[in-house]
Specification:
Gyrase A, domain 2, single chain, alpha+beta, Elongation Factor Tu (Ef-tu), domain 3, 6-stranded antiparallel barrel, 5 helices, about 30% strand, 2 domains, about 290 residues
Length: about 290
């Protein structure tokens, strides 16, 4: 059973009588769609609509004191807890960084473990990613059957980006990070921080830059953060890569123009072939309209 301890992930807990309404007024996902059986991708944005933190939201059952657990990049867990505290005011919530006592694990191509292992759910972004769980830190080694690099190779092959790896926090909109495609933004929920900008991008279709998967010629991926070009024009930057595949943050219109002109797209000087994921519903370079 392929599984990995994602040691770079931490956990922030939000609990208390007002935990649901408190979070629901701040983050991009609808807390009505989060339950002990179903996690959800979400983000906390700036008022200008840029992603400050992305995370997967789990809900604990009442039998173990309930609350919401945010699976977040560990190095940013203290900042997330602090930022949420700024919004607390009189809300009856407790915010804790539990990264020292809890761990995040992931598995794929196999059934998920029993709920007794911890908070366990299918990965909310894409079924093919497998399952994800929050477990006691001392139990994480049981799930470390494979190195985390193998998990990330699986993720990259599926075309799924992660914050802090494939885009910079404070620099990318949810649409650019594919959160609209991966169930990270619920457009029919109430207000949250940055909602006006995100809703405007959705209704006007103004997301010109997105992360797209690519296959590298020769089987070697370029380094992180190097330029993607076509001829003399810059299209964007590389994200993570593994096993000859990678993610690129690029301008879709410039890539489409390059392909129409017969130009080769290169990442770090290496020729690449852009490859549209089956799950993507936006207009891809070389297409004339989004797939229904």
């Amino acid at each position: 059973m392929p599984s990995a301890h994602l040691a770079d992930r931490g956990v922030v807990r939000v609990s208390g009588a007002d935990a649901k309404t408190f979070l629901d007024g701040l983050v991009t996902c609808d807390l009505d769609r989060v339950s002990p059986e179903a996690a959800r991708l979400g983000a906390l944005l700036t008022p200008q609509g840029k992603i400050l933190f992305d995370f997967i939201v789990f809900q604990a059952p009442d039998a173990i004191e309930g609350g919401y657990y945010l699976d977040v990049l560990k190095v940013h867990a203290p900042d997330l807890a602090k930022r949420l505290g700024f919004y607390k005011l009189r809300a009856k919530v407790t915010i804790q960084d539990l990264s020292g006592s809890l761990a995040v694990v992931a598995g794929w191509d196999a059934p998920r473990p029993e709920d007794e292992a911890g908070l366990v759910a299918e990965d909310p972004r894409l079924p093919a990613l497998g399952w994800r769980a929050i477990v006691a830190a001392e139990d994480a080694a049981e799930f470390a059957q494979d190195p985390a690099e193998r998990y990330h190779a699986h993720r990259i092959a599926l075309g799924v980006p992660e914050g802090g790896r494939d885009f910079l926090f404070g620099d990318a909109f949810p649409h650019e990070a594919l959160m609209d495609q991966l169930h990270g933004v619920d457009f029919d929920k109430g207000c949250y921080v940055g909602q006006e900008v995100v809703s405007r991008m959705q209704h006007r279709g103004t997301a010109r830059t997105r992360i797209v998967p690519a296959i590298y010629e020769g089987g070697f991926a370029a380094d992180l953060g190097v330029e993607v070009t076509a001829g003399e024009k810059s299209l964007g930057k590389t994200g993570t890569g593994a096993e000859g595949r990678g993610l690129l943050m690029i301008r879709l219109d410039r890539a489409a123009d390059a392909l129409a002109a017969g130009e080769t797209i290169r990442a770090g000087g290496i020729p690449v072939e852009l490859r549209k994921p089956e799950w993507a519903g936006f207009a891809f370079p070389g297409e004339t309209a989004p797939r229904s």
